[in-house]
Amino acid sequence: MDNAPWLTILGWGEDGPDGLTATSAKILQGAEIIAGATRHLDLLPPDCNAARFCWPVPFAAGLEPFLALRGKKVVLLASGDPFWFGAGTSITQHLQPEEWRALPGLSSFSLAAAALGWPLESTQCLGLHAAPLERLRPHLGLNKRLLITLKDGAMAQKVAQYLCNVGFEGAELHVLERLAGPHQKIRSTRADGFNLENIEHPALLAIVPSDGPALPLANGWPDSAFSHDGQITKRPVRALTLSALDPKPSDVLWDLGGGSGSISLEWLASDTTLTAFCIEQNPDRVSRI
Prior knowledge:
The chain is α/β, with parallel strands linked by helices. It folds into three domains: 7-106, Tetrapyrrole methylase, N-terminal domain (Cobalt-precorrin-4 Transmethylase, domain 1, 3-Layer(aba) Sandwich), CATH 3.40.1010; 109-208, Methyltransferase, Cobalt-precorrin-4 Transmethylase, Domain 2 (2-Layer Sandwich), CATH 3.30.950.10; 223-288, Rossmann fold (3-Layer(aba) Sandwich), CATH 3.40.50.150. It contains nine helices and twelve strands. The strands form three sheets. A five-stranded parallel beta sheet has the order 3-2-4-1-5. A five-stranded mixed beta sheet has the order 6-7-10-8-9, with helices on both faces. The protein is globular. The relative contact order is 0.10.
């Protein structure tokens, strides 16, 4: 009797079936239905006879019809390591533990670090394909290296412009496209000279910041780090306030009369699990936060 889960989440790269382990290849071969994005399904071998479920956009639109496949032998193709800024948790949070198994592949971060010769343990890895670019700001400084996921090719230009806007126009950028596949491409430029076109998905951006206005690692960022009209908690008082607030993982801050939002913004920069509700009645100030 086969007690295997109905769903296998399979790490899938730009090299398609050639990059699979023997175990992963056997499970793929035995699938009744193979699900994934169009670009993943296009890499399947021509002799693959399983039915195909093309995941729609937006992602949430595919959940209900996908979960209706229970009872079939289903393989979901997901980029690299599905549980590192991938689709894994978005699926498994709707399932019981016994319903699924995962066989991850090489993450895009691992492939990028290997291509550049960077030590992954000391490289900041950020998933910005669905997050604001401002999350980059606390990590910019000399002797830092960053790898970030991109929503699409056009996002690389936006990152370059953001770096210029915050004083890191000399940052060295490497655009890494379709890593580990036959169409792999790596191109380099500076932020202030970015002119790369036709960037193919999936792509990552590697950043080596230039000398620029790095933010302090301790509480009390310079007042100039915030957009304000003079209504701002000044740097020494802000440092003391944040120390007294004593943020701990998953804490929530209610900032009433936020002004420039400086307290809330520094609070949020302390840890990704923190939440802040900044309330300000002046519309002009709200637009600056």
